[in-house]
Write a structure and sequence with these properties.
alpha/beta, 22% strand, 321 residues, 11 helices, six-stranded mixed sheet, globular
């Protein structure tokens, strides 16, 4: 559970010296980026720091239970303020966070702290704390706070537990390791209700989301030569099921139950001209090498990519245009 002491001290010093801090969660937020962001902002509140929490998109409804989620701003005018410290959580680069253009409006003189766990991280910060073997960015923040010996609260513990739970699919995917489980146990002792968080963050979904999953399950295809199982979802699927991209969250992890194939791939239409691919494996295959072929990245066991094109389904067959 060791953390780089010099990096840890450098981040703490930067936080202590800052007068106005911007804390950023990535666009289309998941439980890890939101949990990490809100845990950090609760810490800043506890030490009396002035800050703004920002995310390009609102928190999804199933994560609205997180403490202080209402404090996250989506207002682009946030970037017209003066900040001397910007902290990005769970983003491999500024574009992934969705703030690459927005940050050009910031007045010069700020320092960037980059806290993440993605192998594809570009080390874009002035200070970078990126731990590839960590299950989640929440686990990285947990290690950081442990090193600082902060005054823990149930709120901070709950936010970090949510990040770990959602990024490991309830401690089921290969990113889970003994450090993750020790951290989760410690967070429970600090007030995090692991059962309740799991139920709220992972244990409920909407009927329309299940209808969408039904289409993806019906289309599952097996490519034995490449040890690949894949499926796809078109723009028409999202429209007819009256749902959005967030409905796909968890589908790739769920498909781990399939015995055939070593690689799971879910393709979905993200925008009019953009296809997103999600890759998962429980084998020793390094998915980052596959994702990088398409300009993507991620982790060895969980990676993703985007490419130009359109997905269509014709007589049950996938067509990419």
């Amino acid at each position: 559970m060791e953390i780089n002491k010099l990096t840890s001290r450098a981040i703490l010093t930067a936080v202590q010296q800052a007068t106005n801090i911007l804390v950023i969660a990535h666009k289309k937020p998941d439980g890890d980026t939101l949990g990490s962001n809100l845990a950090f902002t609760k810490y800043l509140l506890s030490v009396g720091k002035k800050f703004t929490s920002f995310c390009l998109h609102p928190a999804p409804s199933h994560l609205a239970f997180l403490p202080n989620s209402h404090l996250i701003s989506n207002d682009h005018l946030t970037f017209s303020q003066t900040f001397d410290l910007v902290i990005l959580l769970d983003s491999s680069n500024l574009e992934y966070a969705g703030v690459d253009k927005l940050m050009t409006a910031l007045r010069p003189g700020y320092k960037i702290i980059n806290i993440d766990h993605h192998v594809s991280n570009t080390m874009f910060g002035d200070i970078n704390l990126v731990i590839y073997e960590a299950s989640s960015t929440a686990e990285v923040v947990y290690r950081l706070f442990k090193d600082w010996d902060i005054d823990w609260s149930a709120g901070i513990a709950s936010c970090l537990a949510c990040g770990m739970i959602t990024d490991t699919g309830g401690f089921k995917n290969p990113a889970t390791n003994y450090i993750t489980l020790l951290a989760a146990s410690d967070l429970k002792s600090k007030g995090a209700n692991i059962h309740q968080i799991t139920k709220q963050a992972l244990g409920s979904t909407k009927l329309n989301n299940l209808r969408l999953w039904g289409r993806a399950l019906e289309r599952l295809r097996d490519v034995p030569h490449y040890n690949l199982i894949y499926t796809w979802l078109t723009e028409q699927d999202f429209t007819e099921c009256a749902t959005d991209e967030s409905a796909v969250d968890g589908l790739s992890n769920f498909l781990h139950i399939i015995k055939e194939g070593k690689i799971i791939m879910v393709l979905r239409q993200s925008k009019v001209d953009t296809i997103k691919g999600s890759l998962r494996t429980t084998s020793n295959i390094d998915l980052t090498k596959i994702a990088e072929i398409f300009g993507g990245g991620g982790h060895k066991k969980a990676a993703g990519f985007s490419l130009s094109g359109r997905l269509e389904c014709n007589d049950g067959q996938l067509i990419i245009k």
